[in-house]
Amino acid sequence: MAAMNTEIEKNKSSIENLNAEIVMLQVENTIINEQLADHEQTIINTAASHSAFYARQQIDNDVFEDSIEILNQRLNMLEKP
Fold it and tell me: What is the pTM assigned to this prediction?
């Protein structure tokens, strides 16, 4: 009987330890999920910024190309005798 009570107490202690570990893991999981959400939002914001920058750069490049083309046309006109 005493051996059985000892075994029961050991098992209760193990269950309590496992329950405490479950709570710790749930807290860690919540923290990790929050960090992942923050990282995902940062990635989305960064991608949006890069996309806007790229689009603006394309517009600027088109303007520069037009300016270069006009300058080349003028240069060609000046080079003609």
Answer: 0.58
pLDDT at 24 over 90: yes
- C-alpha atoms less than 13 angstroms from C-alpha of 52 in its C-beta half-sphere: 6
- Taking the C-alpha atoms of residue 31 and residue 21, their distance in angstroms, rounded to an integer, is 15
Q: Position 4: which residue type? A: M
Q: How far apart are CA 24 and CA 76, in angstroms?
A: 76
Q: 80: helix, coil or strand?
A: coil
Rounded to an integer, what distance in angstroms lies between the CA atom of residue 45 and that of residue 38?
11
What does DSSP assign to residue 51? H
Cα dihedral sign, 60-65-71-77: negative
- For residue 1, the SS3 value is coil
